[in-house]
Amino acid sequence: MENTLLSLGHGYSAAYLAKRLVPKGWRIAGTTRDPDKFDRLRAQGITPILWDRNAILPWLEHASHVLISAGPDETGDPTLALIGSDVAAQAARLDWVGYLSTTGVYGDVQGAWVDETSPLTPATERGRRRVAAEAAWSDIPDLPLHIFRLAGIYGPGRGPFSKVRNGTARRIIKEGQVFSRTHVEDIAQVLEASMTHPAPGTVYNVCDNDPAPPQDVIEYAAHLLGVNPPPEIPYEEAEFTPMARSFYAESKRVRNDRIKQDLGVELKYPDYKQGLAAVLAAEGSPA
């Protein structure tokens, strides 16, 4: 059967997976809520479809692989709400299903290490929604589900450089604060490796080897740009948006042994210093 990927909630990470698969002859359909994005998706070799059940079902019926990127909101998981029963009906026929989750499901462990067997104790509402979504997808009988818990995602267009350049980057100091991150190209290679070696029911942490305090990342970005880093701001004195505050509500170091041992992945960017240098080079290149 021809390899056909249905990408539900086709976004940043899925786009980098598509870059790997399209040259290998995969058929890919990606959903969007914005018809203005159709031409851009077509230029990437992806068939655009609207976030509409009638548009999605013909692709679901012929897909060999399904990637779910859309995150849950206050009403629950949007993909389950739209086509959950349809996915369940097709479950036994599919070769692979991937769900992009977050390491936020582990909550705050005060900088300790977590792995895929660690308790799920989310500290934020976003994390609790993810735990519920993971469970709901896992409850579908015969679904060849693989869960990918992504650390902080960065890459071209999603690095710290624009904020450092325009003076809006902040170096907030919170004692003991540390977290893991992952370059989007490493997410893509982990997903492809899993698609090549399916192991339904498996959970994978996707992150680099080097958990680090967020202020260190900002400081290194400034170093790469050849500018002075922003001044340090004590956490207690900083003003936050709700999203930013949730970011500092959790501190953890995430282990990634399983993607290496089970999938044979060799990270392209094993630490943030290599990753940031590559992002700067990519952003500095002509489009």
In short:
This protein has 287 residues and is of the alpha/beta class.
Question: What does it look like?
Answer:
- This protein is of the alpha/beta class.
- It is built from 11 helices and 13 strands.
- The strands form 4 sheets. It has a 7-stranded parallel beta sheet with strand order 3-2-1-4-5-7-11, with helices on both faces. The chain has a two-stranded parallel sheet with strand order 6-13.
- Strand 2 (27-32), helix 2 (38-43) and strand 3 (47-50) form a beta-alpha-beta unit.
- It is globular.
Q: List the secondary-structure elements in sequence, H or E.
A: EHEHEHEHEEHEEHEEHEHEHEHH
Termini gap: 36 Å
Q: What is the oligomeric state here? A: single chain
Helix content: 25-40%
Strand content: 15-25%
Adjacency order of strands in the biggest sheet:
3-2-1-4-5-7-11
For the sheet with most strands, the description reads: 7 strands, parallel
CA radius of gyration: 19 Å
DSSP E strands, number: 13
On the 0 to 100 scale, the average pLDDT is: 95
Tally of separate helices: 11
Q: What is the approximate shape?
A: globular
Uncertain regions spanning at least 5 consecutive residues: none
Question: Structural class of the helices, strands and pairings?
Answer: alpha/beta
